[in-house]
Amino acid sequence: MEAANIPMQPQVRKYFYQKAASNLTPISGTFELTPRCNMNCRMCYIRMSESEMCARGREYTAAEWIDLGRTCAERGMLFLLLTGGEPFLRKDFREIYTELKKLGLMISINTNATLIDEKTVQWLSEDAPTKVNVTLYGGSNETYQRLCGHPFGFDAAARAVDLMKEAGIFVNINSSYTRYNVDDMESIVAFGKSRGLQVNAATYMFPPVRSAREGVADALVRFTPEESGIARARFELLNMEPEMLEQRLRALHSGCADAELSDEDCERTPDEKMGCMAGRASFWVTWDGRMTPCGMMNQPVSRPFETGFAEAWHTITTETNKLLLPVACGSCKMRSSCMVCGALCAAEGDGCSHKKPEYLCGQTRVYLAEMEKAYQRLYGG
Amino acid sequence: MKIDKQYILRQIAGDYVIIPAGKTTLEFNGMITVNEQGAFLWKQLGAEITEEKLVDAVLEEYEIDRQTAQADVAEFLAILRHCKMLNE
After folding, report:
1. Count of A-B CB contacts under 8 Å
2. What share of chain A is helix, strand, coil (3-state, %, to 5)?
3. Residue range A157-195, pLDDT digits in tens
4. Could A19 and B13 be called an inter-chain contact, meaning their C-beta atoms sit closer than 8 Å?
């Protein structure tokens, strides 16, 4: 079958987000269905084993998620991201997905794809999601073993991507870079290009604010700001089509670039509050039933399963509206190229959203220097 | 004639949007926004209906003359035919 790999109309999506933000309609939600995962990535902030999960709480049942989805749809939710952990690990994932799909939602799924086989693809294509975001952690089984503890993860993920593409399911590649897999950047980009798939990259890693490991992160995983800036520039140089790259480099050189930020699930805004739609038009519900504006935030928080959706959403919108970005960011010359947002500032600032995120300043400075070097190399003189 | 594929019409933040469902998602991975009149016509086309009956339904719902109703219906149907959404 001819692949349906065409992006959904971004203007329509933006229009809906903007309209929703203006009247506080929860147009976009994320359901984090489980903290469990069949992989064990060194940088993961959610993953728990079954026993760790049971010690902290319980997964909500299929009926509970479906009921919440129904309420959200009644309140105006159009876009829904199903994520984990690994959502396909839930035995009742098909039931949850099928029932939520009947509500007229544009559903995307985040997955490592290693559990997706022919039968899963056949089932998915009966009522396909809007998008499947497959995270690739490396370009070889060796990297998967090193970073994720999965000896043949790459082969499994690659096969699943090819099966879904063959079935006409729209697939995106997400990639997260750490010191353990940054050398695979070229092969990940090549993987996407060879299949005509969009590749997104996260070269900034949040501090472990949500870590299941009580903040004891693998110190080797996180880049320094300089390394992160270099990785961000390198990814864009590798991934962008020549014409787009030239536009980007020239715009950055002249100092008037709009942020071309890679995470397409974040709807960015130029305001001095959250800097995105989180808590105004979008929300996240964690596996243990906490609603937050964004998956990378612990506060503000509410409990939709306990208080009902309306009260939980009211709390999130009210409290999010009180957040402010750092004053220094408002007049910063690097702002249009910076990834700054409320979630990131709060994570960098130990919960304080208006503290200047020095890590980001360093990352952006190095990123811009690297892009300027590329500009001089290609178009300078 | 009637709508051929599986779609769901929803009202979101004051707008009408048509979402593909089932196998249709593989052929059309997007959304269609329609105005109130478009949503009305869409609902009528959920069951088998002739173009003439569609015009009659429009005339019952809106205070417009037959010529305008015929033109509006024809234009809407042309778009649906172009997108291969009609089963005739």
Report:
1. 68
2. 45, 10, 45
3. 999 999 999 999 999 999 999 888 999 999 999 999 999
4. yes
Give CA–CA dist B74/B54, Å, rounded.
Answer: 10
The token pair at A183 is 């050398």
Model ipTM over 0.95: no
Query: In the sheet where A79-83 sits, what is the strand order?
Result: A199-202, A171-176, A131-136, A106-111, A79-83, A28-32, A282-285, A291-292
Q: What is the pLDDT of residues A201-260, one digit of tens each?
A: 998 888 776 665 544 456 678 899 999 999 999 999 999 999 999 999 999 998 876 655
Token pair for A326: 């750092």
**Model confidence over B40-69: pLDDT tens digits?**
999 999 999 999 999 999 999 999 999 999
CA distance A21 to A24: 5
Chain A nearest-CA residue for B34: A12
Q: Are A259 and A268 in contact (CB under 8 A)?
A: yes
Distance in angstroms (rounded) separating the CA atoms of residues A331 and B51: 60
Domains and CATH numbers, chain A: 27-379 (3.20.20.70)
> Which parts of A30-106 fold into alpha helices (H)?
50-56, 62-74, 93-101
Of residues A225, A248, A227, A251, the one with CA closest to residue A238: A248
In whole angstroms, give the CA distance from residue B33 to residue B83: 14
Closest Cα in chain A, distance from residue B34 (Å): 12
Are B14 and A127 in contact (CB < 8 Å)? no
